[in-house]
Protein 1
Amino acid sequence: TKRVAILISGRGSNMRSLCEAMKAADFPAEPILVLSNRPGAGGLEYAAAEGIAHAVVDHKEYATREAFDAALHEVLSAARPDIICLAGFMRILTPGFVDKWAGKMINIHPSLLPKYPGLHTHQRALDAGDAEAGCTVHYVVPEMDAGEIIGQASVPVLPGDTAETLEKRVLIEEHTLYPACLRKLC
Ligand code: GAR
C-alpha cells in the first residue's frame, strides 16, 4: 500500500475524489496526510471529518519561497509519503524542493497540456476558439506544468460556454482522471 500525501490550497474537491477512491478495498494506496498552505482551506474540514492526518504550512509565515519549501519538506518527510499529489495547490515550488521529490510528485492541471500552462486555462481555451478542453495529470518538474504526462481527459466546448460552465464540465472529468492516474502509478 503506497502512502499518499495530498497538497491543497482551497476547496479540495480533487483531494476528496482521491481519498474517496482510496477507500476501495482494492486500491493500492492510502491517504496519510492532507497538507494546506492556507489555514482556511475548505478541504481541511473533509480531512478532519474523515480522520485523515492534516496540517497547515502557511506560506505567509515565511519570508522566502525557499524557507516555505524547507518547512513543507520537513512536514512531508516526517509523513514518509511514497507519492505526493498536488490537488489545487496554488504555490510555485522551488527547483530544490521539486528535485527532492522527483518522480514521486504529480499534479492535476485544468487544461490539455502542453496547451495553457499557468492560470485562467478555461478562458484561454475559449478565447482561442478551441473545440475541446480538458485536464491533465503529469509529473511535477521545476518548469511549471511541463512534466511528463500521465493521463488526460477531454470535454467538448459547447456554444454559449463561459469560463465557469467549462470549468464545471472539466472538473467532473478531473474527479475521475486523477484517481485513475494515481491507481496506474501505484
Ligand atoms: C482544479 O480545477 C485543479 O485542476 C486546478 O485548481 C482546481 C482546484 O480545485 N489546479 C490548478 O489550476 C493548478 N495550477 P479543488 O481544490 O476543488 O481540487
Note: The chain has a mean pLDDT of 98.
Protein 2
Amino acid sequence: MLQEQEAHAAELERTFIAIKPDGVQRGLIAEVISRFERKGFKLVAIKIVVPSKDFAQKHYHDLKERPFFNGLCDFLSSGPVVAMVWEGEGVIRYGRKLIGATDPQKSEPGTIRGDLAVIVGRNIIHGSDGPETAKDEIALWFKPEELVKYTSNAEKWIYGN
Ligand code: UDP
Ligand code: MG
C-alpha cells in the first residue's frame, strides 16, 4: 500500500504558483492558498521573497520583447511575492483554470482573477502555463531540497487509493 502510494505520488505533476505583490498587499494569500487546497492539490513548497529586478526578468524571460515587460518586472520586484509549488493530477492545467484568463475583465466569475482582480497589470497571481515552464520556474524559484515529499492523509480520499 505504501509502495503504491509512493508510486502514485511520483507520477504526480507539479506547478509553480506565485501570489504577486498586489495579492500579498491586498491580504489575499490565504484566499489563494485555500482555493488550491480545497480543490485537493498539495502544497509542497512555499516561501515569501522580494525578487530582484534581475530575477523578475529571468522569471518572465519569454515576454522580454513585449512592451509591458519592463513595467511587469518592476512590479514583480516591488514587494513580497509568495512563491509556491503545488502538486496533483492535472495541477498545471487545472491551476490555470482556477486562476482564470490573464485579463481579469475576461476571467470567468469563480476564478481567482475573475473574483479578485480588475486589470491585467494587477492580476494578483502567476501560474505556470505548461509542463516545461513549470519545470523551469520551479527550478528558478526553489532549490530541490526546498520541495517537501510527504503523503497527505487526504490523498486516499481525493484519489481513491
Ligand atoms: N501582462 C500585462 N499586460 C498585458 C499582458 C500581460 O501587464 O497586456 C502581465 C500580466 O500581469 C500577466 C503577466 O504579464 O499575468 C504575464 O503575461 P502572460 O501572458 O504570461 O499571462 P499569464 O500567464 O500570467 O496569464
Ligand atoms: Mg504566463
Note: The CA atoms of residues 117 and 123 lie 5 Å apart.
